[in-house]
């Protein structure tokens, strides 16, 4: 499955574009996606510890604009939003 | 009644007059306006501006949830709320958020407005990148988002 990971806040530092793309196996979970992002950080940013911490503390948002937990199964190609710790207002 | 919107400052301006018009009613004895602006210092650093980032759909959903919760919590009759938050670059003194509340009495207006801004701070997916006079720009750390549905 193709996942377009939309980047927000500090996670925008992961790419010059405002998204990353991942190929995941069928019925992968958000936890699997999180692990893929961590591998991406290892490969492309020499395991940058701040970036990895950001991935571990982020939530994820489905295409239907719901915050989903780590067990949530991704069943189709879709956009997922990465929601780092928030600080607006 | 609620008006909730994200203002992309590259396309339009956030405007207090819009808030005034929206909540204007002779039924209200109290109107209160909370206006958040960019200040020149944070953590002993000289700030020159802030770039705001937003997950627009989640932000609007969050504003609607907060408004509904406040209605249920306070049970005030006949209340009108206007919430707009910017995304994009804001210079010192620029407005980042407007919350306007119109209702019967002043105590209600203060309470409702305070509840909204405090909840936005806790759970609305907006991020700030601060720009400094003498250092590289930095995304502020923030707090992990808590899914309100998981708390119910």
Which secondary structure elements does this structure contain, and how are they paired or packed?
The complex is a heterodimer of chains A (89) and B (152).
Chain A: E1 2-6, E2 19-23, E3 28-29, H1 30-45, H2 49-57, E4 59-61, E5 67-68, E6 73-74, E7 78-83
Parallel strand pairs in A: 1-7
Antiparallel strand pairs in A: 1-2, 3-6, 4-5, 4-7
Helix pairs in contact in A: 1-2
Chain B: E1 2-8, H1 16-23, E2 30-37, E3 41-42, E4 45-54, H2 56-74, E5 80-91, E6 95-103, H3 106-123, E7 126-132, E8 138-139, H4 148-151
Parallel strand pairs in B: 1-5
Antiparallel strand pairs in B: 2-6, 3-4, 4-5, 4-7, 5-6, 7-8
Helix pairs in contact in B: 2-3
Describe the structure in brief.
With 89 residues, chain A is of the alpha+beta class. Chain A contains 2 helices and 7 strands; from the N terminus they run E-E-E-H-H-E-E-E-E. Chain A has one domain (2-8, 17-83): Ubiquitin-like (UB roll) (Roll).
CATH architecture of chain B: Alpha-Beta Complex
Mass-distribution shape of chain A:
globular
- Low-pLDDT segments of chain A: none
Mean pLDDT across all residues of chain B, rounded? 92
What does the average pLDDT of chain A come to? 94
Q: How much of the polypeptide of chain A forms β-strand, as a percent range?
A: 25-35%
Order of helices and strands of chain A: EEEHHEEEE
Class of chain A in CATH? Alpha Beta
Kindly provide the name of the CATH class of chain B: Alpha Beta
Q: Largest beta sheet of chain A: what is the strand line-up?
A: 2-1-7-4-5
- Helical run tally of chain A: 2
Oligomer: heterodimer
